[in-house]
Specification:
Helices cover 7% and strands 45% of the residues. The chain is mainly beta. The protein has one domain (2-249). A hairpin with a 4-residue loop joins β14 and β15. The longest helix has 8 residues, at 2-9. The chain starts with a helix and ends with a helix. The relative contact order is 0.14.
């Protein structure tokens, strides 16, 4: 419940970050349906085989744009938003997001983590497709680690036999700084359950109390950073370094 409330409070507002709506089939579209995107599942499941299908229902046109290889991802999904970018020539420009997910299974538990990759995306006639990657950030993480190995452990932990770690991020508009690409706010919420759990420590020996059986927010890995585009590097950069939250984001 805590995680849901915190994320709801950070939901995207009106601005350059546009929420896509469901279109025909698996398409995700701009609210006026002038542009739709689809990332179909590939037969072999490899990231390098994926293509982004771009359609304009109002014009009856369709284009396939190849995606870059995601060496760190087992599965790709379309981020259900577009970020509008100012254009000098009047042709709509956006940033499109691709979510790359990795999964891991281990004895008594498992986990997954996702990174958000933002790419420049042009819609000019004859030049529709993806451009350079401008951002690569951690987007979410979910881990469950076994903590009971005996009946005594079960008793000491009040049958809460898994430690759980969750990380969720949001991307919203920041005040306009006049840059070539819009400034953005990256926000994260990290929680653990039980509240005493720390992934870098042995939690199995801790005797839990009923009051510990709640999901607690990690103040270090719950943070906000402003992202600004740096023309010199052709990348978005944070206004200050992010903390190390690999306990939540590395399966």
């Amino acid at each position: 419940m805590l995680l849901a409330l915190l994320l709801a409070a950070a939901a995207p507002a009106d601005g350059p970050v546009i929420a896509l709506v469901k279109g025909e089939g698996d398409r995700q579209c701009l609210p006026d349906r002038s542009l739709c995107l689809e990332l179909p599942a590939t037969e072999d499941g490899t990231a390098s085989a994926a293509e982004l299908i771009v359609t304009s229902p109002t014009e009856g046109s369709s284009t396939n744009a190849a995606l870059p290889a995601f060496t760190d991802a087992e599965k790709q999904e379309l981020w259900p938003h577009l970020i509008a970018v100012k254009s000098d020539d009047g042709a709509p420009r956006y940033l499109v997001g691709i979510l790359g997910r990795v999964n891991a299974m281990y004895s008594g538990g498992g986990g997954s983590a996702t990174r958000l990759h933002l790419f420049e995306f042009g819609t000019a006639p004859g030049a529709t497709g993806l451009g350079e990657e401008v951002l690569n950030v951690v987007w979410d993480g979910s881990l469950m680690i076994r903590a009971c190995f005996s009946e005594e452990d079960m008793k000491d932990r009040l049958e809460a036999c898994h430690d759980e770690y969750d990380f969720k991020a949001t991307l919203t508009a920041a005040p306009d700084d006049g840059g070539g690409l819009p400034a953005l706010t990256y926000g994260s919420v990290a929680t653990s359950y039980p509240r005493t759990s720390k992934r870098s420590e042995d939690n199995s020996a801790i005797k839990l109390k009923r009051a510990d059986l709640v999901r607690a927010q990690d103040p270090t890995c719950t943070y906000q950073r402003v992202l600004r585009y740096n023309p010199a590097t052709s990348r978005y950069e944070m206004d200050r370094p992010a903390p190390d939250c690999s306990d939540y984001t590395t399966p």
